[in-house]
Amino acid sequence: MFEITVDTSLPKTVFYKELESQLEGLLYDERDLICNAAQLAAFIMQSVPDLNWSGFYFAREDELILGPYVGKVACTRIPFSKGVCGAAARTQAVQRVDDVHGFSGHIACDGDTASELVIPIVVEGRLVGVLDLDSPIKNRFSIEDQQGIERFIHAFIKATDFSWSMGV
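The structure corresponding to this sequence follows.
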């Protein structure tokens, strides 16, 4: 059994560095995309405070398809032209939105969500998908949160075999 140790009193940079080390241990010796995505979504929900959704959307042509997640029932397909996730996929840039209700084209899968952090997953120059984190608290995600979660994505990419999802 894998147990996550979290000390939320630490400065965020130290907090995320310690979690990154634990994530690497969790993903060690497992290469499957779906398994690692499910583990990362659950790991984030268990270790990062004040979230109401953590999960993946995978890129298929010009839309995102729901992948492993933890949270309420979610939107199953998101076009690149809509929502915070679509913007992250379309631009391949992180979207950190302090108030989703002020984001033009926001898709409200969960009416309790107030802020969102979406990080594109790019492997070998190709968009594979996005990691989407939602919070019921406005202004929940700081630059330190973004940088910490981006390090989680790097660990996820390093640990995961993407060849079947990329047509290799």
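Strands lie at 53-60, 63-71, 77-79, 95-97, 115-123, 126-135.
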